[in-house]
Write a structure and sequence with these properties.
Blueprint (H helix, E strand, L loop, with lengths): L4 E5 L6 H12 L2 E4 H14 L7 H10 L2 E2 L5 E2 L2 E2 L7 H11 L2 H17 L4 E5 L2 H5 L5 E6 L2 H8 L4 H13 L12 E4 L5 H10 L3
Parallel strand pairs: 1-6, 1-7, 2-6, 7-8
Antiparallel strand pairs: 3-4, 4-5
Helix pairs in contact: 1-9, 2-3, 2-4, 3-5, 4-8, 7-8
Length: 204
């Protein structure tokens, strides 16, 4: 990989998407929300009545679907920007993201996206530092107290957040974990601007 990448990982509600978008804007870099990609596949499966336990069918969706994440999230031309944040997607996405063949397809897309950018890319997700871009220019791991994370998510309570944390960190395929080289930032009491500044300062 030759692309310049800032890889941001962390659990749900840690501030990854908001911080990554703000950082990309500050640096004038591209931005990629990998979680939106898995959510789009999940939304497509549920729309077609495909169980999230059907690994083969989900793998086919991941392989052939046309997915866009900027400025809106589209899958096969259907705008799912709002749909992917619904509770039913929150409950199902971890199962979809745990399928190795789905992850393999998404990783290929994510790497190609970064390679295609004329500038650097800020990428956020759960396995960006450890799997997708192990040689990233900068690796960052965001976290926050579970109460604060549930508050930020709004539609998910602490029990749901804890359940997703468990599913994401214990799955066999690319589990959520902090890369040893990642800069750790607890965002509980920090503003978005403060987190962006902390990350940007690591580039100097």
């Amino acid at each position: 990989m030759t692309a310049r990448v800032i890889a941001i990982d962390g659990p749900a509600g840690s501030g990854k998407s908001t911080v990554a978008m703000a950082l990309a804007k500050r640096l004038n870099w591209s931005f990629l929300d990998t979680g939106a990609m898995y959510r789009a596949v999940t939304a497509e499966a549920l729309d077609k009545g495909i169980p999230v336990t059907d690994d083969d069918a989900l793998s086919i969706i991941a392989a052939i679907a046309n997915i866009e994440t900027i400025p809106r999230v589209l899958i096969n031309g259907r705008d799912v920007t709002e749909i992917i944040r619904l509770p039913e997607i929150n409950r199902a996405v971890s199962a979809v993201a745990s399928i190795p063949a789905v992850r393999e397809q998404m990783v290929q897309r994510q790497r190609q996206f970064a390679e295609d950018q004329p500038v650097g890319t800020v990428v956020e997700g759960r396995d960006i530092s450890t799997v997708v871009f192990p040689t990233a220019t900068l690796k960052v791991y965001l976290d926050a107290d579970i109460g604060e994370r549930a508050k930020r998510r709004g539609v998910e309570n602490e029990l749901e957040i804890a359940s997703r944390d468990m599913a994401d960190s214990t799955r066999a395929a690319s589990p959520l974990k902090q890369d040893p080289d990642a800069v750790f930032i607890n965002t509980t009491a920090m503003t978005v601007d403060e987190v962006v500044e902390a990350i940007a300062s690591c580039l100097n």
